[in-house]
Amino acid sequence: MNIKILLLLVTSLGVVFGMLFQIGSFFRNNDSLSASFLLIGLVSFIGLISIILKRLFSELKQGISFEDERSKKIKLHSAGKAYFYSLYIWIALLTFQKYFNKDDILLLGLIGMVLTLFISWFITKNKKGLE
C-alpha cells in the first residue's frame, strides 16, 4: 500500500474519532445544536474522504502514478514562493502586533500562509513553460 494512502487513512480515522468524541461531549452537555452541526461536518468529511480514496484506489489498480514530474515541480516551486511570501506576512503581522490580540495574529498568520500557498500553487500550475 502506498504511504500516502496509509497516511490519509490514519489521519482520517483520527479526525473521525475525534469528531465522534466531541459529538458525544456535546450531547452530554445538552448542546444539541453544536452536536448536529458537527455531525453534518462529520458526514461531509467521511463523504469527501471516501471520494478521494475511491479515486486513489482506482488509479492504483490501473497503474497510474499519483504524481508526474510536472506536478512535483509545481509543488516545489509554489511551496518555495509561498514560504517566501509568508515570511513577509508574519513580519507585517508582528509589526502591527500592538493592535491585535496574540490569538488574532496567529489566526491571521496561518490563514495568510494557507492563502499564499494556494495562490502560488494556482499561479504556478497555470504558468506555461514550467518543464
Walkthrough of the structure:
The chain is mainly α and 131 residues long. The chain is 82% helix and 0% strand. The protein has helices at 3-28, 32-62, 69-95, 102-125. The chain is flat, with a radius of gyration of 20 Å. The mean pLDDT is 85.
How would you summarize this macromolecular structure in one to three sentences?
The protein is built from 4 helices and no strands. By secondary structure, the protein is mostly helical. Helix 1 packs antiparallel against helix 2 (32-62) and helix 3 runs antiparallel to helix 4 (102-125).
Fold topology:
Elements: H1 3-28, H2 32-62, H3 69-95, H4 102-125
Distance between the termini: 30 Å
Which stretches of 5+ consecutive residues score pLDDT under 50? none
Give the H and E element order.
HHHH
**Helical content class:** over 70%
Count of β-strands = 0
* Secondary-structure-derived class: mainly alpha
Q: Number of helical runs?
A: 4
Biggest sheet layout: none
Beta-strand residue fraction: under 5%
Shape: flat
Radius of gyration: 20 Å
Write down the overall mean pLDDT: 85
